[in-house]
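Hi support team,

I'm filing this because I wasn't sure whether my run with zinc ion finished correctly. The job status page said complete, but I'd like someone to confirm that the output block is well-formed before I use it downstream. Pasting the exact inputs I used:
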Amino acid sequence: MIAKEYKDFCADLVRNFDKDWAKVGLKVDFGYQFLEHVPLNAWKPMVTLAVDHWEGWPRNWVRAVKEIYQLWKAQEHIERSVTDCEKCNGNGFFSGTKMVEVKPGIFVSYRHTWRCAACRNWFGVMGEKIPAGYPLEIKSQGFEIDIYQKPMPKDQHSFDLTQLVNMTDHRVNQKTDRPAIMPLREFGD
Ligand SMILES: [Zn+2]
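And here is everything the job wrote out:
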């Protein structure tokens, strides 16, 4: 059985490209067997994508629709890259501070930022050179953990992060290409 969502998709495009349903209907219905794997919620947004990307009615209907579906999946992936995460409140990163005795009686406060190991919300915002960790695991290494209470709005994310990185002084060792205030094992237990 042909899904209603697919029929709507076809009807919208037939209308947009000024085609005659009597001419294309059979081909389009036939094509459904090759497109059944497309999730039903994709058909509606795929109309817009097809209108944006197709010069005209495609010669190879199934192949053209599959391309649009790939495009939709790619966009969906980007949007979904910010997910709920209870470890980092969805921010994709968190900070921690630790007092380290560098010389007898001299304590220095180290502040560091980690990528959240429980999600990928840091992706596209933070490089993989920043170490990943779980807040509880970092806490067990003696850090005071500082997690942002609420996820930042997406458009502010990178802005605030720039501030944060400046504040936490992420120096990268030019020779090793790794963060300078690392690794944790130098801090001792
Ligand atoms: Zn997370």
